[in-house]
Amino acid sequence: GAGAALAGRHVLVTAGPTHEPIDPVRFIANRSSGKQGYALAAAAVAAGARVTLVSGPVTLPAPAGVSLVRVETAREMLEAVRRALPADIAIFTAAVADWRVAEAGAQKLKKGPDGAPRLALVENPDILATIAGDLAHRPALVIGFAAETEKVVEHAKAKLARKGCDLIVANDVSAESGVMGGDRNRVHLVSRDGVESWSEMGKAAVAHALIARAATMLAPR
Ligand code: C5P
């Protein structure tokens, strides 16, 4: 039945922001709430899957039945994802920080006569692209998210190719949309087969519909 569409499958979900340290008491972060990722993890459990949720720092409780791995930085998230593989489906909803401070201070940075510190940034690993391109360990189905403020579908198509995933779930996170931190979402599914735009619904409804779709995309065993 519908409650067992993913029985015997392992679903891996990343969620939340990452925190990139500047020094022991400061970090770079973003406004990701983790809500959509946590809803997806819960929906995958409801579909009968074994679920690993690799989460950056958020204030949400762990969904029942999920194996939760808490991380802070992008590099920790990549490491936790690698350790959780193999998986049948991997869904990358985390808002991973694009950059981290090249050399985070071992001690708290102090104000001094020389003015503000200059923070050198370096790029973080792209977790989705890394896993999608790791042919020995690639899950059968790799799903990415794209948070865009303009040209949502156009940017998502480019991202699908660039990241090497099977599906991009694109949403409009412009301030007017109220998606970031909110409870509702309007998504566009972008795959090699084309674009499918869903009407606006709650994040839980998006999660259940997406998990049902993912189950149909998996080759039967
Ligand atoms: O390139 P952009 O950040 O817009 O891509 C978003 C997608 O890529 C999301 O699925 C996100 O979880 C994933 N991503 C990632 N690691 C990064 C950056 C993005 O897994 N360093």
TrEMBL record:
Enzyme Commission code: 4.1.1.36, 6.3.2.5
MF terms in GO: phosphopantothenate--cysteine ligase activity; phosphopantothenoylcysteine decarboxylase activity
Binding site for CTP: D98, K108, P125, D126, I127, L128, F145, K159, K163
Cofactor, free-text remark: Binds 1 FMN per subunit.
Keywords assigned by UniProt, alphabetized: Decarboxylase, Flavoprotein, FMN, Ligase, Lyase, Magnesium, Metal-binding, Multifunctional enzyme
Protein family per UniProt: In the N-terminal section; belongs to the HFCD (homo-oligomeric flavin containing Cys decarboxylase) superfamily.
Function: Catalyzes two steps in the biosynthesis of coenzyme A. In the first step cysteine is conjugated to 4'-phosphopantothenate to form 4-phosphopantothenoylcysteine, in the latter compound is decarboxylated to form 4'-phosphopantotheine.
This protein's name: Coenzyme A biosynthesis bifunctional protein CoaBC
Species of origin: Labrys wisconsinensis
Residues of the full protein shown: 195 to 415 of 415
